[in-house]
Amino acid sequence: MSQQPIKRRGLMLVLSSPSGAGKTTISRRILESEPGMALSISATTRQPRPGEVEGKDYFFVTPERFDQMVAEGAFLEHARVFDHRYGTPRAPVEEALAAGRDVLFDIDWQGTQQIREAAREDLVAVFILPPSTGALEARLKSRAQDSDEVVARRMAKAADEMSHWQEYDYVVVNREVEESVAQVASILAAERLRRDRQSGLRAFVESLRGEEG
Ligand code: 5GP
Fold this sequence. Notes:
Elements: E1 12-16, H1 23-33, E2 38-39, E3 43-44, E4 59-60, H2 63-71, E5 75-81, E6 84-89, H3 90-98, E7 103-106, H4 109-119, E8 123-129, H5 133-143, H6 148-162, E9 170-173, H7 177-192, H8 201-212
Parallel strand pairs: 1-7, 1-8, 2-7, 3-4, 8-9
Antiparallel strand pairs: 3-6, 5-6
Helix pairs in contact: 1-7, 5-6
This protein binds guanosine-5'-monophosphate (5GP).
C-alpha cells in the first residue's frame, strides 16, 4: 500500500489577471509541465481572434446558445466581461475533479467569486499582476490583435480588475516569466500536499501505525 500514491481530490487552480499581464503564457507553461492537469475551456459569445481555435481556446457560441446553457445549469460560473459573456462548462470540470485530476482556469474575478462560493475547499486562486503600468500597456499593444480603442478600454479596465487582488489566495508579480511559472508551480506543489486534500491519508497512516504495532 505504501508504494501507491496517496489518493487526493483534484483542485481548481484559478489564474486571474488584467489582460496583458502574461497570464496566458504562464498557463500554457504550467500545462506543459503538468501533463495530468486539465484546462477548463470556456464558452464565450465573443468572436474568435486570429489563430484561435474552436474547442481549444474557447467554445464560440451565439448569445442565444449561451442563454440556453445558463438556463440548463450547464455553467459552473458565468459572467459578462467587457462586452461579451464567458462561462465555464460544468461537466468536464466535475469529471476531472472526480478522477483526482487538477483543473486550470483562466477566468476573471467574478467567476472566481462564484467558484469560491460553490466550492471553497477545492479552489486555489492566484492573481497575476504586471510589474508596471508601462509593461501592461506594452504587452497589450504588442498583441496588435485588438483595435486601439479596445486597448485603451482594456487599460482602463485593468485598474478595476486589479482592485480585486485581495480576493485571491496568492499574488504573483510577473516580472520574468520563468520566475512566475516557478512560483505558480510551487503554489501547486504545496496545495497538493494540504492535509484535507489528501483523502487517502487516514487509511495510509492507519496502515503505517498497524505495521508498527
Ligand atoms: P479574452 O476575451 O481576452 O480571451 O478574455 C477576457 C477575460 O475573460 C479574461 O480576463 C479571462 O480571464 C476572462 N474569462 C475567460 N473565460 C472566462 C469564463 O469562463 N468565466 C469568466 N468569469 N471569465 C472568463
